[in-house]
Design a protein that fits this description.
The chain is 36% helix and 25% strand. The strands form five sheets. Strands 14-16-17-12-11-15 form a six-stranded mixed sheet, with no helix packed on it. It is of the alpha+beta class.
């Protein structure tokens, strides 16, 4: 593999792409991206970069983000953060049997008792498999019952292509997700104050008690560790993981100068490149690219009058002014001029009074180089009363053109015709038989 892309390359962004590249709304960095699946999106949901975002992938320790969510939302029913739970022999044996030559315990020994608060810090900061299993048992009574809660929450969040088979993140083909789903899960987790507070820490000291020695739990996420080759100060959490079979994953969140992004990187190569973890390389390079080359721009402002439509049934007024119903802001390359965005109107040819100010009439699509980048509602800029005279004439006109009006007119015409025919026949018979009777009397 070629020598790792340096930080200098990370700062040389899309200058060579020009207007034509952005014309197709494909935001591609000039550096290599090693992760198999990537999803980079800002806090407002504007997608900056994605690659195989809906492809099934294995989350590994990123599974524990959902574990943390379920713990937070169910801990009160289990006794609160001061509740005690024990690292029992069954869990210890399971982790020993499934260690795959790796370290799967964060210093615990069977029989150690911890508070839920301590275990939660082990889970979130140090990705403790042991803490995950102990908390699962505390919350739901069994691993299976806890996993059921995890999958229920995934459905609720909208992670439709995700299935959890365990709470700890040890690899299992039935434990899968996508980069997009993992973004939804991480975004939900970061909305929980307890998770956000804990995930921002890089270490936690669990003081010694009668049941265990003093333990120190540190993060393994190089993006968070000051002095690490991957350190990037805007990053806050979230979780990393790896196995030789699956590769390297990282889920992260970063804030800088008023901008914020979520990023999911799954399936980067396992082997280090000159000491560099390529999942973390991707995350750092893409963040630097995003914070340098893109910004939120206001495209249109609410209240601006932009179009008009024909108006019917209003006295001495035949057009209705339309204004933008809500402002539209989106993420664009810094060198994209707002004036280069064009508008397409989707409105009826005319509307009928009465109309209330603010009533939605249609929409306006915002187009950049042939691609629709968003739309805003178009609403009435004023209230317009209906003319009773014009309304009455319109109703009469509509009535005369209706099927039932035409049907009734035809029926009446037929009945009149039949009546006239009947009268003609009756008069004819009256004359004929009247003359016959007079002749007979004579």
């Amino acid at each position: 593999m070629k020598k790792l892309v340096s930080l200098v390359l990370a700062l040389i962004f899309v200058l060579s792409m020009g207007v034509g590249a952005f014309a197709e709304m494909k935001y591609n960095p000039s550096f290599d991206v090693y992760s198999e699946a990537v999803y980079l999106v800002d806090a407002d949901g504007n997608v900056l970069y994605e690659q195989n975002a809906d492809q099934r992938m294995y989350p590994l320790e990123l599974t524990q983000v959902m574990t943390a969510i379920v713990v937070i939302e169910n801990i009160d029913a289990a006794g609160g953060w001061d509740a005690l739970a024990t690292y029992d022999m069954n869990i210890q044996n399971f982790l020993y049997d499934n260690r795959n030559n790796g370290i799967i315990s964060t210093g615990m020994v069977s029989g150690n008792t911890f508070t839920a608060e301590e275990l939660f810090n082990d889970l979130v900061i140090a990705s403790g498999y042991d803490a995950a299993m102990i908390l699962a048992k505390l919350i739901a009574g069994s691993q299976d019952a806890f996993v059921e809660l995890m999958n229920q929450k995934a459905v609720e969040i909208g992670a439709k292509n995700t299935n959890f088979s365990n709470c700890h993140g040890l690899h299992d083909t039935a434990n899968y997700t996508t980069a997009y789903d993992m973004y939804l899960i991480c975004k939900y987790a970061m909305g929980l104050e307890k998770f956000r507070e804990t995930v921002s820490k890089t270490s936690y000291i669990c003081e010694a008690t009668d049941t265990h020695k003093k333990l120190v739990w540190n993060t393994y996420n190089g993006l968070l560790i000051n002095g690490n080759i991957h350190y990037y100060s805007p990053v806050i959490g979230i979780k990393s993981g790896y196995t030789p079979e699956i590769g390297r994953n990282v889920a992260s969140y970063a804030e800088y100068e008023g901008f914020a992004y979520y990023q999911i990187n799954l399936g980067a190569p396992y082997e280090l490149d000159n000491g560099y973890n390529l999942a973390l390389v991707d995350a750092k390079n893409l963040y630097m690219w995003a914070f340098t080359e893109f910004e939120i721009k206001t495209i249109v402002e609410a209240g601006s009058q932009v179009a008009e439509v024909g108006l019917e049934l209003a006295w001495k007024k035949d057009h209705l002014q339309l204004m933008i119903g809500e402002s539209f802001r989106t993420l664009l390359p810094v060198d994209t001029e707002v004036s280069s965005i064009t508008y397409e109107y989707d409105v009826p040819e005319s509307v009928e009074a009465p109309i209330e100010k603010g009533e939605e009439i249609g929409k306006m699509n915002l187009v950049l180089a042939g691609e629709v980048i968003g739309s805003v509602p178009l609403v009435a800029a004023e209230s317009v009363e209906q003319s009773e005279l014009l309304s009455g004439l319109k109703n009469f006109s509509d009535m005369t053109h209706s099927f039932w009006f035409k049907f009734i007119v035809i029926v009446i015409f037929i009945l009149i015709a039949l009546y006239i025919a009947l009268m003609i026949i009756r008069n004819y018979n009256h004359r004929k038989y009247g003359n016959f009777k007079r002749k007979k009397r004579l």
